[in-house]
Write a structure and sequence with these properties.
Blueprint: H1 23-31, E1 38-39, H2 51-62, H3 75-89, E2 99-103, H4 104-116, E3 122-127, H5 132-139, E4 143-148, H6 158-168, E5 172-178, H7 190-203, E6 206-210, H8 225-228, E7 233-238, E8 250-254, H9 257-270, H10 276-288, H11 292-313, E9 317-318, E10 326-330, H12 339-350, E11 352-353, E12 355-356, E13 367-371, H13 376-391
Parallel strand pairs: 1-11, 3-4, 3-5, 5-6, 6-7
Antiparallel strand pairs: 2-8, 7-8, 9-10, 10-13, 12-13
Helix pairs in contact: 2-10, 3-10, 4-5, 4-9, 6-7, 11-13
Length: 393
């Protein structure tokens, strides 16, 4: 193995010093070698991609659909995304310059932050939140401002948003909202979004709406800020969660052309384009597979209710998730607030993998996140093991 040239060992983008490696992946890797462990750590659906979607990808490969696609995505896919968003959000996006196909929703977010933010800009992020947001904002030279929502049932209120905007000052350029939320599963009602939209419209801020879990809501219909504020919202989503297509890396972002130009420009530098087979599969999923998520939703809701019942009896406090496939649970007081210590002990003693809550930002200390995108059998055994562990105390 080659040794790094000594004079190059310190060659590094200094912005990397402001971010840490993915704590979720790091902790998952740390506990993966424990014999017999059942991991409820990652947001990885246990379902297979629907057969008709797989067939479309296979057909693309067999027909030698293997050349560079347009940077923004194939026209038929951008049209399918536009049609889906018109039906689900009531907003008409021009496929030519208002829809961008990306390598997963992660690349959508990277293209947005790199394309639109400048050093000194601030982005408000309600927490708990997916830790990726903080890293991407910092790598763009901007500053993430965490809004701890733990005292409000993990919901950002319009009044709190107004106060935070005023406190942060003129450098605030955007608000990043993820709903349904990872890690809490909380989402907004139509009325709550209307109240937030009034504040955002008043301050003329960019809205980055991460709606990757929008097809997985359980107790209410999904409603979008893009419906209320299409002129200032970038809607981010994809098919990883709705169609169990995590490995296909299929995402997209839609928004007004005046904003999208810079996002598309950065995207073309980062990845050139998304692979052809993934795009063919996505066309099929959006045009002929809109009912596919309903099968997953039914199973996820059953698992959610089962886990909440079991963990509540164990002494955990849980704000019922309204979407996505995570439970964010407060550790009983007798265990203290060191969620890393608790999660590691549970992994080693009970062979159950959970994610320490504090990786999700302000207001997350003393919590653990678990994913119920796992098989029913694994969830049942994991709850039995966790109950036995908790009974020891």
């Amino acid at each position: 193995m080659p040794e790094t040239l000594a004079t190059l060992t310190n060659l590094r983008n200094q912005l990397l010093d402001t971010v840490a490696p993915s704590a979720i992946r790091s902790f998952d890797n740390q506990i993966s070698s424990i014999p017999g462990i059942i991991k409820l750590t990652l947001g990885e659906p246990d379902f297979n991609v629907p057969e008709h979607v797989k067939a479309a990808a296979i057909k693309s490969i067999e027909e030698n659909d293997s050349h560079y696609a347009p940077a923004s995505g194939k026209p038929e896919l951008r049209q399918a995304i536009s049609d889906y968003l018109k039906d689900s959000r009531g907003v008409t996006y021009n496929p030519a310059d208002e829809v961008l196909v990306t390598v997963g929703a992660t690349e959508s977010l990277a293209s947005i932050t790199y394309g639109l933010l400048n050093p000194g800009d601030k982005v408000l992020v309600p927490t708990p939140a997916f830790s990726l947001y903080f890293a991407l904002i910092k790598m763009a030279g901007a500053e993430p401002v965490m809004i701890d929502t733990s005292s409000d049932g993990f919901q950002l209120t319009a009044k709190r948003l107004e106060n935070e905007i005023e406190a942060a000052g003129d450098q605030v350029k955007a608000v990043l909202l993820n709903y349904p939320n990872n890690p809490t599963g909380r989402t907004f009602t139509k009325t709550e979004l209307e109240d937030l939209a009034a504040v955002l419209k008043k301050h003329e801020l960019l809205v980055i709406a991460d709606e990757i879990y929008s097809d997985l809501t359980y107790d209410q219909d999904h409603y979008s800020l893009a419906t209320l504020l299409p002129e200032q919202t970038l809607l981010v989503s994809g098919l990883s969660k709705s169609h169990a297509m995590t490995g296909y890396r299929m995402g997209y972002v839609a928004g007004p052309a005046g904003i999208m130009r810079s996002v598309a420009q950065i995207h073309s530098y980062l990845v050139v384009c998304v692979n052809d087979a993934t795009q063919a599969a996505a066309v099929e999923a959006l045009n002929n597979g809109r009912e596919d998520p309903l099968v997953f939703k039914k199973a996820y809701k059953k698992r959610r209710d089962y886990i909440i019942e079991k963990m509540t009896k164990m002494g955990f406090q849980i704000a019922t998730p309204q979407g996505a496939f995570y439970v964010f649970a407060k550790i009983p007081d007798q265990f203290g607030k060191d969620d890393f210590k608790f999660a590691l002990d549970v992994a080693e003693q009970a062979q159950v993998g959970l994610i320490p809550g504090s990786v999700f930002g302000a207001g997350s200390d003393g919590y653990v996140r678990l994913s119920y995108a796992a098989s029913d059998d694994n969830i049942k055994v994991a709850m039995e093991r966790l109950a036995t562990y908790m009974e020891k105390f």
